[in-house]
Hints:
Layout: E1 7-12, E2 34-36, E3 41-45, H1 52-62, H2 82-86, E4 89-93, E5 100-104, H3 108-117, H4 135-146, E6 150-155, H5 163-178, E7 182-187, E8 200-203, E9 210-211, H6 218-228, H7 230-245
Parallel strand pairs: 3-7, 3-8, 5-6, 6-7
Antiparallel strand pairs: 1-2, 1-4, 8-9
Helix pairs in contact: 4-5, 6-7
Amino acid sequence: MPGSPFLTCVQLKEEKYRADVYPFTLPIVPADFQLTLSTPVTFLVGENGAGKSTLLEALAWACGFSARGGHRDQSFSEGADGHTLGRALRMRWRQRVTGGFFLRAETFFNFATYLEEAGSTFDAYGGKSLHAQSHGEAFLSLFSHNFEDGLFILDEPEAALSPQRQIAFLRILHDLGSRKVGQFIIATHSPILLTLPGSRVLSLDGGPLREIDYRDTEHFRLTRDFLNAPDRFYRHLLQDEEDVGQ
């Protein structure tokens, strides 16, 4: 996947850092925090509570998006943890872009409602109300019809996608990244998405960001091992239940 990202580096403003204030207390935000972006698609992985959503909110806010999601000109909700960290971020660009989208799976319903209330024609979403589609259909409609030029910050886009639709989404990521028109920063738990060739995977587990091969992520290894031998896992699970009942 050739191409250079639009946003190349994110650092903390030294004067804004406060070690005793959340979210600077998160292990992923040390005083020398730096996020280097060298590929069109960057994945962030980590367990729940590691700070993925907070970091994405901050990046989105610092890039001009509402911290609740949507386009830059759609601020349908205010107030989020990302504001505190977002104000402390210094962004370095190879080329500034105005297009893009910030997706938060947990607030997507609110975004769809905002479009309804704003009288959208939904031309950019396949011509059909997002509320009139299933959750998965609405997500893929957004990705297929609305993603083109710009920076896209996505928080768990696989939340509503079947494995087949995750593979369709991979095609969208590859096409836009290879044509050098789209940059993606994606927090995910999906081992399917992590396999995208030419992407970069950064782990938030255990402290500051570190690059990791997708094959070494807990998401990929656990899924692979479980599918290869589910009976072995169930033996342990059922044994644990028996032990508890005794």
